[in-house]
Specification:
Layout: H1 5-21, H2 39-58, H3 78-93, E1 102-103, E2 110-111, H4 112-133, H5 142-152, H6 157-160, H7 178-185
Antiparallel strand pairs: 1-2
Helix pairs in contact: 1-3, 1-4, 2-3, 2-4
Length: about 190
Amino acid sequence: MAWDALDLYTHGLDFFSEVVDAVPVDSWNRASPCAGWTGKDVLGHVGAGTEMGIAILSGKPMAYEAVDPPGSVVPDDPASWWRDLAAAARTALATVEDLDRVVESPAGPRSVRDGLSFPGVDLFLHGWDLAAATGQKVELPAEAIAFTEQMFTHIPDEVSRQPGVFGPALEAPADASATDRLLSFTGRDPSF
């Protein structure tokens, strides 16, 4: 069955959490596939987005300031920090009864459905980035791949192919897995 935005985000929290829990303690500062970022920076970026999502879903005022590098907000125990954030996100998600409810976001008023879609995709793609940085091999679930492909059929390249989103698409080999094809589409090198 196809996932909606709530399914994607919920499963994304699980996927990202499994990757975080498997990161060796001495691997957080390894380079990631995200140019200029370490694994800890990937976690800091995803954590900041998660905090913003919690505020949106909870109807609390939201203040987002970009931090450079993103990993500077992550304390000495990254896995515990993430587990606490993920638990708070799950609590906030439990309050969602209407995916079409309009909430305030940094992009202005939008539905919960729209507000969860990109962060949900981020949990999977950055979960792969963190896994790659820390020596883990992961495959993205077919439902997450299908959701992402569908979502980006409606987003023009001039919006998605810019710094902070996706790089230029790479050509995937004919025999590439579905995960590798999606990673190539997003400008990531699946062999990182």
